[in-house]
Amino acid sequence: MENKDIKLINEDGTRIDGRRPDELRPIRMKVGLLERADGSAYLEWGGNKILAAVYGPREMYPKHQQDPARAVVRARYSMAPFSVDERKRPGPDRRSVELSMVISNALSAAVLTEEFPRTVIDVFIEVLQADAGTRIAGLTAASLALADAGIPMRDLVVGCTAGKIEGVVVLDLNKEEDNYGEADVPLGILPRTGEIVLFQMDGMMTEEELCTALDMAYNAAMEIHRMQVKALKDVYMKEAEEGGE
Ligand code: ADP
User: Fold this and answer.
1) pTM to 2 decimals?
2) What DSSP designation does 63 have?
3) Smallest CA separation from ligand 1 atom 27, residue
4) For 15-38, what is each residue's pLDDT tens digit?
5) How confident is the model at residue 145 (pLDDT cuts 50, 70, 90)?
6) Which percentage of the chain shows pLDDT scores above 90?
7) Ligand 1, pocket-test mutation among 25, 78, 79, most atoms within 8 A of CB
8) What is the DSSP code (8-state) at residue 64?
9) Cβ–ligand 1 contact at 15 (below 6 Å)
10) How much distance in Å is there from the Cα of 156 to the middle of ligand 1?
11) Is the pLDDT assigned to residue 1 strictly greater than 60?
12) CATH number of the domain that 95 lies in?
């Protein structure tokens, strides 16, 4: 959606929230805050507030959904009724079904699913407050929760969005930029190899712009990955120092 009345880039080249084109919103993460789940994580990313919880691997029911060769990673993305300005009708809708699927696929590419045949790994992503980029923030939190549950993975998964507003390629679109910008490309990246496990695109970009966007997102993924590792170390190194697990 484009709107000529709304200015997204200031005279000095900064964005409406003061960021440079390649600057992320502030991100905070915390691992292992829910006691009943096998693994959990909480993430604040700009105005997004997201909780992820993991159960499993456990036996898959109904049995006909079992995969005899590997575990099924089943993510459920859900937005709380109070997460947006107008109350959101609770329960699944087309969008949340689609997001659950793309997030499940992205996480499956990282988890060593062949180690747990016939099982299911349930990942619940609860968006408590939404401010654009919830699918990639949810993915980032989910991968931390999987690590907290001790589930073996090839790598953590980092989510990140790049896009285009007023002809400028920018990183990590906020709500106004997402609404009134020209393009939005959510990505899921495995930081060690740079492999892309989630790729969607809303709007139009030239090939050159897309290359710039991917470069930006890749650099940001490295930065977010360092935050993920720190969040895990904050819990597990502390436990080790205290003589815990
Ligand atoms: P993402 O959150 O991954 O960017 P979208 O591009 O579909 O996904 O949504 C952008 C933003 O629009 C969301 O983060 C949220 O702030 C808002 N939004 C999405 N769905 C709704 C809804 N049903 N009601 C109100 N706002 C919504």
Assistant:
1) 0.96
2) G
3) 84
4) 999 999 999 999 999 999 999 999
5) very high
6) 94
7) 79
8) G
9) no
10) 24
11) no
12) 3.30.230.70
Q: Which atom in ligand 1 lies closest to the alpha carbon of residue 89? A: 23
Counting from 1 in the atom list of ligand 1, the atom nearest the Cα of 130 is: 16
Nearest CA to ligand 1 atom 2: 134
Residue 10 belongs to a domain: no
User: What CA dihedral angle connects 102, 106, 111 and 115, to 10 degrees?
Assistant: 50
Q: Indicate whether 12 belongs to any domain.
A: no
> The tokens of 128 are what?
């408590």
Number of domains present in the structure of the chain: 1
DSSP three-state, residue 46: coil
Residue that the structure tokens 């890749």 belong to: 218
Strand pairing class (168-171; 202-203)? unpaired
Q: Please report whether residue 134 resides in a domain.
A: yes
Q: For the CA atoms of 46, 22, 96, 175, what is the dihedral angle to 10 degrees?
A: 60
d(CA 60, CA 214): 37
Which residues form the domain of 67?
Answer: 27-243
Q: Tens digit of pLDDT for each residue in 177-235?
A: 999 999 999 999 999 999 999 999 999 999 999 999 999 999 999 999 999 999 999 99
CA 74 centroid distance within chain: 15
CA distance 119 to 127: 26
Evaluate whether residue 20 is within a structural domain: no
